[in-house]
Amino acid sequence: GTLRLHVYNTYEGAAADGGSTAVTLHVVGRALGCEGRCPLSSVVERVEVGFEHAGAGGSVPRSATWAPPNEEGGSGACDRIEVRREVAGGGRECVAKIRIFLRREHKYFVAAPALAALLGIAEDTHARFMQALWSYCRARGLVCADDPGAVSLDAQLRALLSVAGAPTSHPELCKGRAAFATVCAYAADLLSEAPPVSIEHRLATGKQQQRGAKASNGGVGGASPESCYDIEVELAAPSVRDADSDAVAQACDDELRALCGRIEGAAARAAFFRAFEASPVDFINATVLSQGRDLQVAAASDARARSASSTDGFAQPWAARAADVYLKRR
């Protein structure tokens, strides 16, 4: 996905006598296409801001680090970062250097120029670089038919291995072919960990006084022009679970069960009518016999129930024996 950042700063107290100016740096971020679901704190691991010429007499820290709030602690998500500093020398511009460390599931790497030119990928994960290298070999028919784990070395691969530091006397290279694992090992040496996203913002501290307004302390307040940046980030899969999802799921389950019951009832009625249509006489005879058997079973059950509930049932000879076994069960 794409993270869109808006960077600007506001200032106030820029007096003509060259006093200090209160500067607030604003970094506002929104993930395009999923507003409200992927806040800035969900895609950024931390942000480091460094200031040049910040602080009056060096008493104010020149750098600041921001980390996303702990959602488990109840702080919630946020879309905005604000850093306030006192900049010495009113009217003099300073530079804020912003380093953004993105939250990624896998570590990203930057390819050396030789590897990037071969694969057409400048920054990606280690696994995707190796996959692209294998695709390169397959597309050019370099995979050996007698050994799928080996590849023939064309001029581009030889040049790549040379840049990676492979010796010309390597036994595999002398044969014009090498194990793909060997090629991957040398290609990995051409990968370096991707640096954080760096942004330089020139702080407005009062030079553009024509854009400012009169501040309460007699100085000038205003804002710098806003800069916009688009950054490719990994966005979490959208979650459809909310507070009412359980109730909605239960309602859907109940509706499905009701529909299944109606379908089963319709199927039973259809089978009933098809059997009657095929042979009415046999159908009636089978129904009468079935009802007769049901009446016999019901009558026998009623008789057993009446016998068990009567006083005579408890006066049988086995009753004393059963009571003796029950009392001696321990």
UniProtKB/TrEMBL annotation:
Transmembrane segments: none
Location of the DM2 domain: 109-162
SUPFAM superfamilies membership: SWIB/MDM2 domain
Name the record gives this protein: DM2 domain-containing protein
Source species of the chain: Prasinoderma coloniale
